[in-house]
Structures are given as C-alpha cells and as structure tokens.
Amino acid sequence: MCEVFDEKSDFFASATATPPAVVPRLQRIAKSCSLESKTTLLDVGTGTGALLPFFKESGGDLAQITGVDLSAGMLGFARERFPQARFVQDDVLHFEGGPYDRVVFNACFGNLYDPVAVLKHVAQKLLSDGGLVVISHPLGRAWLTTLKEKDPRMARALSIITSIQHSTESEKRKLMYISNHIM
Ligand SMILES: C[S@@+](CC[C@H](N)C(=O)[O-])C[C@H]1O[C@@H](n2cnc3c(N)ncnc32)[C@H](O)[C@@H]1O
C-alpha cells in the first residue's frame, strides 16, 4: 500500500487529482466536520493534504490538524504545502495521540487493510467523548459502488462493528454512533 502511494504521490499532489468538479464536494466534506478554530482534527490517510485548504476555509485552524499516513512520498508534499500542520508517518492502527474532536477518513477508508480494527482503535484511543468521525469519498457513491463491485472486501458492512467484544460502555457508544451515522 505504502509503495503504491509513494509512486503516485506526484499525481496526488498535482492539480489533476483535484479537478474543479470535485471542489464543491471537498467543501461539503470539510463543512460536515463542523470546525471551529479550537477543534482538533486527525486526518487519516491525509496523503498530500488535499483536504487541508478546505478545513481552513470552513473555519478550522491548520495548527490543530494532525495528518497521519503510511506513505513518506505523500507526506513529503503535505509537509511542504502546510508547514503549520503536524504530519506523522504511521499506520493509523498503531497511531497514538489525541484524543481528537474529529477523525476524518477521506478517500482512504476503502484502502484500509482492517477497517473494523481501525474503527475500534479510533473509538478506544483517538476520538474524544462527543467527537465526530467522518468517512467520505469525493468521487461519490456511484464511483464507490463500482469500486466495491471490483473488490468485495470494500463492501463490508460497518454494522458489524457493533458486535465487537471487550469494549467499554463509552467505546460501545462511540462505535454505535459511528455505525448508525455512517451506513
Ligand atoms: C487515495 S489517498 C487519499 C489522500 C487524501 N485523504 C485525499 O483526500 O486526497 C489514500 C491515502 O491513505 C493512506 N493510507 C492507506 N492505508 C493507511 C493506513 N492504514 N494508515 C495510514 N494511512 C493509510 C495512503 O498511504 C494514501 O496516502
């Protein structure tokens, strides 16, 4: 996964990766995060930081944003473009920090090897009480459906996360919240 994105980082940093038609969608995604200047946000699979200008435009402060990504190539572009933000090269599954008021997965949830384990980690370690998880893709539902048909692993229902054992009541509440609001 990491090598794939290292190789593609030039493309993701280019204007071609964010065509004008996609801009209103990125604006909607950022707006759905309901950001204020003090809101802390973890951008999972931040890549080249494509969403950061939209977080800022919708009221967020780049200094409150942490981007985590596996790919050093992608992060190289993100660090150069947004020196005010913090970037960490890590697998989100092992990432420790926060807790954050918002945890955002844009165009990366389908890339996760074990999305259920990641959501559990988010609920246990990364999300603050009353926090919000946003899972989105700017290319829209139809495109994602095509992707799911090509790779059935991406069609796994998030509702299975509610059956995860050994969670505390607070974690269970967060996981229920995530599954009810996302799928
Ligand atoms: C298609 S890019 C999306 C980048 C960015 N979120 C955007 O909106 O343009 C997906 C990113 O997810 C990262 N990624 C995939 N699995 C990951 C994981 N387990 N932990 C951290 N980053 C991951 C990849 O390295 C890649 O940079």
Automatic annotation (TrEMBL):
Gene3D superfamilies on file: Vaccinia Virus protein VP39
InterPro entries assigned: SAM-dependent_MTases_sf (IPR029063)
Name of this chain's protein: Methyltransferase domain-containing protein
UniProt organism field: Durusdinium trenchii
